[in-house]
């Protein structure tokens, strides 16, 4: 037989960000963006802007959500996500996602959603109390649809998203079993072979699963005011790092290895250099926190300098036009795949009465 010339189909990847802030921060970078940059060479990547989800906490701020949406696309382009190789998906323009959300909601016990630890943490950290809208817990179901609409194999996310990916796997397993006749004992990786509509996706956690904020306590997050943003100026970055409290009594006192300064040294300095700094602190050598802060600040700024420059280019009328056209092209490509998935799901559910096409 002649050697085959067709490359094997690239496996699909889907992940996304919610536009609740004007831009992404270092936690996003080491938790997910870095993985995305690596994965877009070898995989068919879909990157989703969860703009509908942003309304779960910002329903009265549509202008902010719009600006944040554009900001996230700018950040993606600035870090090097490439719309020619990957597909940028604007959630609100992919109707299959909303439809699958409703269908999946029938397969997930209400109490299971309400027990989701990621939602619980968010309710607490954002001080939502008991006045959050119905749509807030529903976003967990929506996220299953965000993912499954694209039938991916991998979902690169930060550790905080693991509970959502678990829920998504449960929904996919249940859907395949209930509607596509996949047996209870078929292992997840064989679901498609056994006739399932959905592959059972797997989370891929980033190099730094959970980056601590500059407060040294909570996860880095815009709502907690402890974030270093990708678009922060050089001065702002250094100032935020200088503001880290190390809590040492003197220059020879030890440092808590969980301190934000140590975590950032580990995340942004070369491994040997971070190890050497930790060893000096541990040995009670004289270490000036200010020197370490300057070194970590310089490393972060070296990483961010090209990103900042590219983002600035996008803050022009030409840049805005580019962003809008990237969004439009992405929506077209995304709908092609998501509509195919929806048709497969409806067929499995015996509700395939009408064939439709979306024109955009
Ligand atoms: N909830 C995710 C976050 O806050 C964003 C998101 C929405 C997402 N839909 C997704 C991530 C689908 C991965 C897959 O970061």
Q: Gist?
A:
Helices cover 52% and strands 7% of the residues. The chain is mainly alpha-helical.
Description of the structure:
It is built from 13 helices and 5 strands. The chain is mainly α and 360 residues long. It folds into 2 domains: 231 residues, Rossmann fold (3-Layer(aba) Sandwich); 82 residues, Tyrosyl-Transfer RNA Synthetase, CATH 1.10.240.10. The strands form 2 sheets. Strands 1-2-3 form a 3-stranded parallel sheet. A two-stranded parallel sheet has the order 4-5. Helix 8 links the parallel strand 4 and strand 5. It is globular, with a radius of gyration of 22 Å. The chain starts with 11 loop residues before the first strand and ends in a 12-residue tail after the last helix.
Structural class: mainly alpha
> Which fold name corresponds to the CATH topology of the largest domain?
Rossmann fold
The CATH architecture of the largest domain is 3-Layer(aba) Sandwich
How many domain units?
2
Give the strand order, joined by hyphens, for the main sheet. Answer: 1-2-3
- The total count of helices amounts to 13
Arithmetic mean pLDDT: 95
Give, in order, the helices and strands.
Answer: EHEHHEHHHHEHEHHHHH
Gap between N and C termini, in Å?
44 Å
Which CATH class of the largest domain? Alpha Beta
List the helices and strands and how they pair.
Blueprint: E1 12-17, H1 26-42, E2 44-49, H2 51-58, H3 62-79, E3 87-90, H4 95-105, H5 110-114, H6 117-125, H7 135-148, E4 154-157, H8 162-180, E5 202-205, H9 234-242, H10 260-268, H11 271-282, H12 289-314, H13 317-348
Parallel strand pairs: 1-2, 2-3, 4-5
Helix pairs in contact: 2-3, 2-7, 3-12, 4-7, 4-13, 7-8, 9-12, 10-11, 10-12
Tryptophan binds at residues 14-18, 48, 50, 53, 143, 146-147, 155, 157, 161.
